[in-house]
């Protein structure tokens, strides 16, 4: 409450300045008025006392004669003369017994002189309007006779020389009136002084508060966003300097704001351009292209407007990128962009959708006209030669084209149709145009792969991947006692049925899902190995794991393998990673780097499905594996095809000369087994030995064999007669 009242009184700077100037003046004026009032009234009181004291002092000696002689008339004359003095209300002369001998006026105070006065000279009694003064009348100490005799008088007892008293009462009414007048004059002077002080204080407060108020109002306007606000420069001294400083600061702030706004506008325009355009080529990006395509689809209404959508995928771009580096790939994209822009109409939209893919929207264009435009673009790219470091590269373009007719209703349908047509163009031989048709066989196959990609992603999220295992059996003596097996991926579909890898792996390869599947397989295999190793005693192990070249080409794959080995505390030698020979031939440099990394970790490396061509033999010398798995198709056809039998023998002979073990895949019957034994292939794998089974079940069988004391490896080899 008090704080609120204080804020109300001194809240503003004007009020504070007013109080600062007025309060000292009020205090000083009040102190001075009080001082002079008290002093003046004290002097008036003292003046009245002195007058009364003087009157009785003069009246007492004058009354001696009348008291001695008993001459009352003279005494009466004396008291009447005393009444002529100002403020005298009554005068009395009494003898020493207190009997009144002369009196003038009427006394107001009840006094008994004989009892109270004694030798007192001065004020005897008082009331609110009366003061009583008394003085004794004494006999004179010397007279003439005594003086002439020159004989000393004997000492007199105290009071023996007192003849009586004179008593005078003075009225203080005039004194009170004079006091009131003094107070009134003092108050008038105080009021006048305070008024003058208040006026001066108000002028001073206004001289301070008005400039500050103008500054405050200008600050408020600036805070509200009015940067052009200025304050009037009407003050001198420090306030004038403050006003000039404020205006200078406001001008600087306004200039900075305007400069910043210009920069923000420029940056916003740049950001808007960057958000809708590809920084490398300057073309519209995917987001802008899709927005424009959506607007085109929405703008058709009921009109029969013809539009054509194209997907352009550069052929052999990866060759340039891998051979010459990313800088060459970026320059190639810029040059291709300039080529395409030359043939595109101003009303059409050309965009880079990502990587080496471009989108082209031909508005108000029939399918026939669109085909002519797109064919000219394809021919332009085909004729173009990209030169980098004195090396020339030919580039092609696979183009998918879709007419945006009534069958295409949504953005997703348009993009999917163009993508599927582009895929079909690539799959049919590249550097061609493929027009989308709803019943196109190539498009249907691509659509199936896209469906599988979605189903694979969902299967991984729902943990419906399965790991199967199949043993690798020693076929000749002298092979180390080792439990060898290979693990395979399977998929459990939505109906609970097991799906073989040849059904879903093409889609996984196409949509770059293999690294995720391979990482799952590595973790599951390591977990199963840990389960085998936790037995009290176990033979040496070797687990083969197939990897896609997509996984092999990623640098983080080796790091992940090392992390899994450390997590499950598994010796690296227990793992051997297999890469298909046909896939390795396409990315041999990456596979070679990967194999070297595996050896540094301590893991094995092998070629899977080896023998698709005689050129394969060169890989054995350039990248000697721990073993080669001879292609199952060659093994399976050996009994009926002499060429296949010759190839298998050649692979085995060369492998043996290089000190590399060979594994025969798909040994599924006795005839194949007998021929494999006859050739001398060291290891075999197939359903004739043991069909693939769920890894969990296979581990349980191994554990049961260990409990029953059976051999940890497949050491009993069946004979051909079996």
What descriptive keywords fit this protein?
722 residues, single chain, alpha/beta, Beta-Lactamase, 5-stranded antiparallel β-sheet, 25 helices, 8-stranded mixed barrel, Alpha-Beta Plaits, 18% strand, 3 domains, elongated, TIM Barrel
What this model shows, in words?
By secondary structure, the chain is α/β, with parallel strands linked by helices. It folds into three domains: 16-141 and 161-178, PAS domain (Beta-Lactamase, 2-Layer Sandwich), CATH 3.30.450.20; 285-438, 2-Layer Sandwich (Alpha-Beta Plaits); 453-707, EAL domain (TIM Barrel), CATH 3.20.20.450. It has 25 helices and 22 strands. The strands form four sheets. The protein has an eight-stranded mixed barrel with strand order 13-14-16-17-18-19-20-21, surrounded by five helices. A five-stranded antiparallel beta sheet has the order 2-1-5-4-3. Helix 14 (441-461) crosses helix 15 (501-510) and helix 16 runs parallel beside helix 18. The radius of gyration is 63 Å and the shape is elongated.
Q: What is the alpha-carbon Rg in Å?
A: 63 Å
Largest sheet: 8 strands, mixed, barrel
Class of the largest domain, according to the CATH hierarchy? Answer: Alpha Beta
Number of DSSP strand runs: 22
Can you say what the CATH homologous superfamily of the largest domain is?
EAL domain
CATH topology name of the largest domain:
TIM Barrel
Cα shape: elongated
- Chain-averaged pLDDT: 83
Structural class: alpha/beta
């Amino acid at each position: 409450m008090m704080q609120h009242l204080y804020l109300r009184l001194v809240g503003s700077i004007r009020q504070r300045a007013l109080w600062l100037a007025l309060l000292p003046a009020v205090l000083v004026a009040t102190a001075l008025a009080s001082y002079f009032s008290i002093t003046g009234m004290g002097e008036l009181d003292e003046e009245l006392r002195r007058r009364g004291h003087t009157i009785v002092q003069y009246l007492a000696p004058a009354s001696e004669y009348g008291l001695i002689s008993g001459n009352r008339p003279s005494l009466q004359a004396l008291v009447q003369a005393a009444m002529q003095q100002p403020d005298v209300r009554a005068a009395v002369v009494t003898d020493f017994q207190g009997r009144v001998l002369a009196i003038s006026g009427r006394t107001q105070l009840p006094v008994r002189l004989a009892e109270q006065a004694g030798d007192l000279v001065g004020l005897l009694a008082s009331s609110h309007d009366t003061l009583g003064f008394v003085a004794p009348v004494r006999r004179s100490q010397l007279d003439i006779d005594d003086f002439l005799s020159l004989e000393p008088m004997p000492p007199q007892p105290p009071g023996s020389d007192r003849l009586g008293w004179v008593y005078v009462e003075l009225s203080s009414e005039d004194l009170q009136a004079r006091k009131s007048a003094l107070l009134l004059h003092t108050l008038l002077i105080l009021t006048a002084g305070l008024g003058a002080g208040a006026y001066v204080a108000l002028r001073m407060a206004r001289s301070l508060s008005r400039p500050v108020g103008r500054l405050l109002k200008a600050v408020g306007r600036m805070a509200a966003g009015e940067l052009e606000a200025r304050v009037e420069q009407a003050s001198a001294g420090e306030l004038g300097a403050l006003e000039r400083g404020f205006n200078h600061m406001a001008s600087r702030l306004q200039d900075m704001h305007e400069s910043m706004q210009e920069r923000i506008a420029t940056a916003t325009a740049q950001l808007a351009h960057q958000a809708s355009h590809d920084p490398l080529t300057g073309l519209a990006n995917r987001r802008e292209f899709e927005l424009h395509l959506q607007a085109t689809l929405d703008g058709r209404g009921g009109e029969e407007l013809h539009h054509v959508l194209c997907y352009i995928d550069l052929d052999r771009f990866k060759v340039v990128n891998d051979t010459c580096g990313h800088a060459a790939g970026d320059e190639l994209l810029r040059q291709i962009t300039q080529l395409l822009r030359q043939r595109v109409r101003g009303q059409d939209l050309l965009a880079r959708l990502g990587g080496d893919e471009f989108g082209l929207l031909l508005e108000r264009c029939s399918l026939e006209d669109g085909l002519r435009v797109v064919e000219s673009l394809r021919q332009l790219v085909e004729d173009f030669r990209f030169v980098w470091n004195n090396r020339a590269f030919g580039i092609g373009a696979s183009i998918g084209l879709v007419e945006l007719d009534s069958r295409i209703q949504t953005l997703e349908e348009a993009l999917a149709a163009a993508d599927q047509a582009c895929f079909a163009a690539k799959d049919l031989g590249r550097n061609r145009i493929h027009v989308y048709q709803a019943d196109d066989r190539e498009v249907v196959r691509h659509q199936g792969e896209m469906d599988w990609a979605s189903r694979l992603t969902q299967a991984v999220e729902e943990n419906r991947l399965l790991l199967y295992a199949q043993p690798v059996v020693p076929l000749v003596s002298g092979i180390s006692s080792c439990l060898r097996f290979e693990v395979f991926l399977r998929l459990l579909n939505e109906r609970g049925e097991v799906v073989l890898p040849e059904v879903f792996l093409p889609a996984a390869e196409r949509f770059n899902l293999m690294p995720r599947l391979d990482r799952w397989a590595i973790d599951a295999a390591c977990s199963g190995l840990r389960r085998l190793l936790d037995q009290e005693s176990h033979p040496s192990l070797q687990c083969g794991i197939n990897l896609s070249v997509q996984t092999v080409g990623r640098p983080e794959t080796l790091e992940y393998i090392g992390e899994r080995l450390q997590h499950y505390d598994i010796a690296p030698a227990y793992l051997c990673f297999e890469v298909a020979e046909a896939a390795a031939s396409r990315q041999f440099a990456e596979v070679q780097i990967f194999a070297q990394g595996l050896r540094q970790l301590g893991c094995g490396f092998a070629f899977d499905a080896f023998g698709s061509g005689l050129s394969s033999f060169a890989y054995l010398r350039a990248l000697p594996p721990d073993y080669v798995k001879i292609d199952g198709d060659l093994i399976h056809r050996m009994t009926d095809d002499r060429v296949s039998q010759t190839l298998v023998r050649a692979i085995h002979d060369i492998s043996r000369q290089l000190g590399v073990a060979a594994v025969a895949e798909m040994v599924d019957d006795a005839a194949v087994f007998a021929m494999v034994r006859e050739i001398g292939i060291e290891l075999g794998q197939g359903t004739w030995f043991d069909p693939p089974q769920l890894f969990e079940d296979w581990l349980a069988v191994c554990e049961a064999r260990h409990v029953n004391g059976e051999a940890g490896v497949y050491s009993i080899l069946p004979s051909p007669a079996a």
